[in-house]
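Fold this sequence, please.
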Amino acid sequence: MLHTRKAVAVAIGFVAALSLTACNGDDNASDSTQAGPTASADKAGGTGGAHQSTGTGTGTGGADPSSGTGGSDRGADTSTGDNSDGKVGICRTDNLEVAAADNTTDKTEGVVTVSFKNSGGGNCRISGFAGVDLKTSLGDTFSVHRNGEQALPQILKGGETAAFNITFPVNDSGGSGVRLTDIVVTPPNETKHVTLKWPAGTLPVTDGKDGGKLEISPVGKVSDSPAG
């Protein structure tokens, strides 16, 4: 693993990597490019809470299954929408509007919510953990690990939304901390990623393991998302 200019241990003590680590599957994620405010096919976007951030990604991303940072435990499903045999295909990146919003209410633990809105029209299936990499202002990239909660399968109708949270320690040290710039998100069971702007504050710098947790929850359906 390449070393960064400064070893930063956040959560259980992560070390920033200079190259984008994989998000899901067996392939490595390629660099993403920023784009306009919405996403369908090659674009990503949507609506969210305060400090909403939207973006887009091109290329593919994956993760080493042993790392615990990729998508669902199941392999990628190449089907889309409702199949002729009645099975519901997975939610593809191209049919999802992806957004990130800062929902932090605690002084010690921050929350960024990433949402997936089904904009593809038909029903689709989403289950497991998304792959998440964070980029810093120094150009470093590191993966965010799962929180260990059980992932439940979800069916999204057209217009419905699923989401997950990124929890992170709030920087209350008075220093500048680690400034994050981007979130690289790969939906569960997918290989194509989306890049969003980081909508929240900085992370504390620590050389120990007591800097708080930085982790993601499994994707879950948003109960009040309208079907359209």
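The CA atoms of residues 138 and 179 lie 8 Å apart. The radius of gyration is 17 Å.
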